[in-house]
């Protein structure tokens, strides 16, 4: 039996189900990416140099993107040995992961990308088993 993997992913977490000859394994990978970065300090900024004290939005976006790349690389490390992969999720994270897999020359292993709402771990595992006919 070949190793197969299915995962549900969004920007906060990934639930990975790996099916192999040794059985089924479920892993949860959390993301440290924070979309709405908070500004430090509790008082509003005052003074003539106020704009210089606030970080630029593009620098915040670069930090968020770097955190997501680290998260996607961690997910890819988890599914690297799988010969076939099912990717599910509610938003754009599944497409971003597919692009990251293409960059790693693993994109051809993706058998399907599906839109799926929030699911429990057993629901994800059942869907992966049905997809691969296990």
Task: Summarize the structure in words.
The protein is α/β, with parallel strands linked by helices and 134 residues long. Helices cover 37% and strands 25% of the residues. The protein has helices at 50-53, 57-79, 93-103, 121-132; strands spanning 4-9, 13-20, 23-30, 84-89, 110-115. Strands 3-2-1-4-5 form a five-stranded mixed beta sheet, sandwiched between helices. The model has no long low-confidence stretch (mean pLDDT 87).
Secondary structure layout plus pairing:
Blueprint (H helix, E strand, L loop, with lengths): L3 E6 L3 E8 L2 E8 L19 H4 L3 H23 L4 E6 L3 H11 L6 E6 L5 H12 L2
Helix pairs in contact: 2-3
Structural class: alpha/beta
Determine the number of helices (DSSP H or I, runs of at least 4 residues): 4
Question: What top-tier CATH class fits best?
Answer: Alpha Beta
CATH superfamily: eRF1 domain 2
CATH architecture: 2-Layer Sandwich
Whole-angstrom Rg: 19 Å
Q: Biggest sheet, strands in spatial order?
A: 3-2-1-4-5
Largest sheet, in brief, is: 5 strands, mixed
> How much of the polypeptide forms β-strand, as a percent range?
25-35%
The arrangement of helices and strands along the chain is EEEHHEHEH
How far is the first residue's CA from the last residue's CA? 10 Å
> Helicity, in percent?
25-40%
CATH structural fold name: Nucleotidyltransferase, domain 5
Q: Roughly what is the average pLDDT, rounded to an integer?
A: 87
Low-confidence parts: none
Total individual domains: 1
Shape: elongated
> How many beta strands in the DSSP annotation?
5
